[in-house]
Target: F-box domain-containing protein
Amino acid sequence: MHPAPTLSTHCPYCRQSQFHSNPTFQQQIPNHLDEILNELERAELLVARLLERRSILRRQLNAIQAPISILPPEILSVVFENACRPPDFVKKHNLALTNDREDMVVSEVPEGSHRTQFALGAVSFNWRQVAFSTPRIWTAVDLGVNPHNVDKSAAILHSFLIHSGLLSLALGFRFYLTGVGAEHKALISPTVDPLLIDNAHRIRELHLSSAPKPWADHMSQFTHLTNLSFRDGSTYAVTPLIISGPCSSLMFHAIRSRPQLQWAAVTVLHLKGVAVHIGLDLLRKCPNLNEFRSQDASNPLPEETIELPCGSFSLPHLKLFEWSVDSECAVDGAMLRHADMPALQKLIWIEQCPRPFVSIDDPRHIFLHRLPSTLSVLDINLATCNESDGPTYECVFDHLRDDLAIEGLRLRKCSYRFLEAVFRRLTPGLTGDDDQTVQRTAFPRLRSMVIIGPSALDWDGFDGSLILPMIESRFSHHFLPHNSDEPFLLEFEHLDILWEYDIKQFLKNRVDSGLKLNLVVDSEPVGWL
Model:
């Protein structure tokens, strides 16, 4: 006997079929559901196996059909090394000093990123194996660390430490821990800090921006550092920096304590926002410096004890020196009086709070007058000066000897009055009485002048006629400068130049007559010369 047939009706609203089963059919529903669920489970297992099989086949296909699959792993590894460029630490950590940033040329080559290594490994199984076995592409990384990406940064750093083998490392960390810096107790994260400390001996280059306190506490463990930039991010108790490695290149930004270094190893030292007495102390203690630069120096706190040098100290290897001069600061005065730089080649002189030279005992006069004959580049920045202090400006050049072998002169953000004084000084003239006159020429080896402006005050424009007396007399037949076969470079940047018709004609006639002059405005040679 068959069960009663299932009746079917339709909903009067949606017209969907509605089935009404007899009681026997209702009892069989749980069994049907179990069968369907079991069948779905078996289907899902089959699908998972198929997906896994498809992934395997795709990896094999990628390995076989990769465009450079015919290359041996050694060649592919070299390709990867060229594809993974190191990060630009100077740009990422703002290591360029103020004067350098004005001269930096923007590179068209994109900077390196740690994402490249992982992108190469994601292409195929073969590429991943080659990437992981190429330690050179894992030797340099720069990471931005904030409270939301600590775990991710730790994982990335772990990969670089593991896959770089035993090679030397260059690491950079930019910390964005505002408000939580004092609570950050780890270098990066507890998950990667032990591995980082274990590999500290491999780190040769380290760049830290706004570093939390644990970095200062552990700095002594980086025993083989040769290049360090450290920007203090602490707002709590000052922690002395103990650098035990033979670090030759150092940059300190906003540190508030005297670091302990291997003094004889330091050859390059850059300071930014460091107290002036700490800068002088570091200058005195590093006898083998080749380059010393200090910018935006802060004043010492009233409660700090300052030890000033009582006698001269020599820096026999120093070739580049930059200092922001404050004529009323006792520390500046001590440095200017006692520092001896017999091999100096480039001087960057930044004038702060200019005051008139009161006598030949002025520390500025003593320093400027004894500059060595090796000096070839003079860079003067008077951005902080006021137009009303014009007579003070002239004193800077008045205290330089004429016989200095300066070949390049760079004047940054100087006033119009100061430039007038400079061009007058550079215009040769006769000195002496009627019976015996002597040709007086300042800087006879001068081959280039770069004028960058304007100053903080607005100009109506730079009058091109200001250069004519210097050009006329300096390159006359009576005076031929050193290496006169080389063209003289006169460059203006960020200045409105007023070139009258008569000035243009004069310069064109002189060039046609054999004057070798390169006249450049905003990095472009003038078209009318």
